[in-house]
Specification:
By secondary structure, the protein is an all-alpha fold. The protein has 5 helices and no strands.
């Protein structure tokens, strides 16, 4: 039958009783480790930090793992780190700025030291 189908006997028996390859078995082990590290650090760690932690863990076993492989496995697991956007001040267009009276009437001339002071207080506090 193998001769008629044009396949070798080894391919036929491999097809009948498939065993996971060594690479697939390693990937399954790495996925478990990645999920544990990801949960341990409250889903904040991305590929590079997981790579560092995982290689520290694999070092006694004399194994290593690349960031690209970890990235691929994280995509397969559909996990990604939680990112927080940086704080931005409220834009000036949303708040109305109060007009202050000009007490100096644009007269900045003095006859001595410490007679007139100015300060740039153009920001507003938003509660």
């Amino acid at each position: 039958m193998c001769r008629i189908l044009g396949v070798s006997r080894a391919q036929y028996y491999r097809y009948r009783s498939p065993k996971p390859s060594k690479r697939r078995a390693e990937d399954a082990d790495l996925k478990q480790r990645i999920l544990r590290i990801f949960a341990e650090f409250k889903q904040r760690y991305g590929v590079m930090k997981i790579h560092h932690e995982l290689n520290l863990e694999l070092q006694p076993l004399q194994r290593r793992c690349s960031p690209r492989r970890i990235s691929r496995l994280m995509k397969e697991l559909d996990i990604h780190s939680v990112t927080v956007n940086k704080w931005k001040a409220a834009s000036a267009s949303k708040t109305k700025v109060e007009q202050r009276p000009n007490l100096l009437k644009q007269d900045f001339s003095t006859t001595g030291l410490n007679q007139k002071w100015t300060a740039d207080m153009t920001y507003t506090l938003v509660a």
